[in-house]
Each structure stands twice: as structure tokens, then as C-alpha cells.
Amino acid sequence: MAFNEKLADRIREALTDVPNAEEKYMFGGVCFMVNGKMCVGVVKDDMMCRIDPDLEDIVLEKPGCRPMDFSGRPMKGYVYVSEEGMKKKKDLDYWISLCLEFNAKAKASKKKKK
Question: Whole domain around residue 17: which residue ranges?
Fold first, then answer.
């Protein structure tokens, strides 16, 4: 499954100065981890944002934003943003900043034992 490389490049550029940022390929796309925690990513042509669940109702009113329902049911604290919601750099920066703000207080997922 392909993902939008141009969008991934925009996110890479936005995270250039963020310490402990790394890329992982998952969900048929790319995920940018910060401090070992999922932060933001690209799935097909959408940006996947991990945000504060308390802000979810507010951001869902923004253009291009919808619940992330990767597994068939919405995941609390995760949203998809389409091109409509991030055409301008300031819009992309808004979403990246929300992701980074929540990343500072988010818990890392538990590592599975091998």
C-alpha cells in the first residue's frame, strides 16, 4: 500500500529540529515517533495525528479532520486530516504542534515480549 511521500516529506521537514524523532513504517504508511511514542504519520493521503483526547471534539470541527477508525471503530485521541485541512504550512504546523504537545504527556505503548 502506497502512502503520500510529499506529505511525509512535509512532516519530516516540520520535525527536523525535534530531538528523538524517528520514522517507522507501519499501517501501510509511515509513522513518526518522538521519544519512542507514536506522534504523527501518513496513511495513504491522510495525516494521522495523535492528539490530546480532550481536544478531539474541538478539532473534529476543523476542515479536513475526521475520526481515525483504522480498525472499524474510532480510536480516542487519534484523527485523520485530509489535504483540505493542511494545504498551507501554518495549517500543517498547527497539527504538528498539537501532536508534539500531546506527545510530551502521552504514555508509550507497552512493548510486547518476544
Answer: 5-103
For residue 80, which amino acid is it? Y
Model-level pTM? 0.90
Q: How many domains does the chain have?
A: 1
Contact between 48 and 40 under an 8 Å Cβ cutoff? The reply is: yes
**Could you read off the pLDDT of 30-89 as tens digits, one per residue?**
999 999 999 999 999 999 999 999 999 999 999 999 999 867 888 999 999 999 999 999
Residue written as cell 498547527?
94
Asked, for residue 31, whether it belongs to a domain, the answer is: yes
Cα 4 from Cα 42, distance rounded (Å) = 7
Residue 50 in grid coordinates? 495523535
| Contacting residues for 101 by C-beta, under 8 A, at least 6 apart | 52
In the chain, % helix, strand, coil (3-state, to 5) comes to: 30, 25, 40
Model confidence at 114: pLDDT above 80: no
Place of cell 474541538: 58
